[in-house]
């Protein structure tokens, strides 16, 4: 496979299309334009087990789908289980070596320092180009910094919440009749429990 130089816009466009069709599942399927030569792009996966391995498998399946459809783009995965800060700092120091796509278990507040350092490009021009629709996402899952989108959530997360039902009952709350199903509702419940 021959590696050739591509500009940042091309890389982000391919990254967006790849994430959209295989990992996020929120874009309509669109064929990628074939490049003159085979292009290798790098995705860093910073997730714990088993998620990182499952995502790497999905990337492999997407590569096979691209190849079957005559595509010339191939994603190379690095499953980085620890040391992501050091790898990104090394790339920044060298001025090269950043991945073309980063998939991590990170909030925007954590990623904000990398955005402010200029290590992450905004996705808005690409998302507009592929007619990305934020209506497919639950409220509160669009993370923006200074009006720009740098991340796209690609899956739900369901951390288990615990509640003392006796305290909820004392506060006049009924879990079965009206469970807290949003962040605002959860905060409201917490406030009521703490003040009763």
Explain briefly what this protein structure is.
This protein is of the alpha/beta class and 196 residues long. The chain is built from seven helices and five strands. The longest helix has 18 residues, at 51-68.
Distance between the termini: 67 Å
CATH third-tier fold name of the largest domain: D-Maltodextrin-Binding Protein, domain 2
Mean pLDDT: 76
Rg over CA atoms, rounded to whole Å, is 20 Å
Model description:
The protein has 196 residues and is of the alpha/beta class. The chain has two domains: 8-149, Periplasmic binding protein-like II (D-Maltodextrin-Binding Protein, domain 2, 3-Layer(aba) Sandwich); 165-195, no CATH class. Helices cover 41% and strands 12% of the residues. The chain has seven helices and five strands. The protein has helices at 8-24, 51-68, 84-94, 108-116, 124-129, 165-170, 183-195, and strands at residues 39-46, 73-79, 101-104, 144-145, 148-149. A three-stranded parallel beta sheet has the order 2-1-3. It has a two-stranded antiparallel ribbon with strand order 4-5. Strand 1 (39-46), helix 2 (51-68) and strand 2 (73-79) form a beta-alpha-beta unit.
Architecture blueprint of SSEs:
Blueprint: H1 8-24, E1 39-46, H2 51-68, E2 73-79, H3 84-94, E3 101-104, H4 108-116, H5 124-129, E4 144-145, E5 148-149, H6 165-170, H7 183-195
Parallel strand pairs: 1-2, 1-3
Antiparallel strand pairs: 4-5
Helix pairs in contact: 1-2
């Amino acid at each position: 496979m021959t590696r050739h130089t591509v500009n940042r816009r091309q890389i982000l466009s391919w990254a967006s299309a790849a994430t959209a069709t295989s990992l996020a599942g929120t874009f309509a399927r669109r064929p990628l334009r074939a490049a003159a030569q085979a292009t290798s792009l790098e995705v860093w996966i910073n997730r714990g087990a088993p998620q990182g391995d499952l995502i790497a498998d999905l990337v492999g399946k997407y590569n096979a789908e691209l190849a079957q459809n005559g595509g010339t783009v191939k994603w190379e995965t690095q499953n980085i289980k620890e040391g992501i800060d050091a790898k990104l700092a090394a790339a920044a120091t060298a001025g090269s070596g950043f991945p073309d796509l980063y998939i991590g278990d990170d909030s925007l507040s954590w990623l904000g320092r990398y955005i402010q350092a200029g290590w992450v490009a905004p996705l808005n021009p690409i998302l507009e180009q592929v007619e990305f629709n934020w209506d497919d996402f639950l409220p509160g899952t669009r993370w923006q910094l200074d009006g720009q989108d740098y991340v796209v959530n690609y899956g739900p997360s369901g951390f288990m919440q615990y509640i003392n039902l006796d305290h909820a009952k004392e506060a006049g709350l009924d879990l079965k009749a009206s469970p807290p199903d949003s962040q605002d509702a959860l905060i409201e419940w917490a406030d009521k429990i703490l003040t009763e």
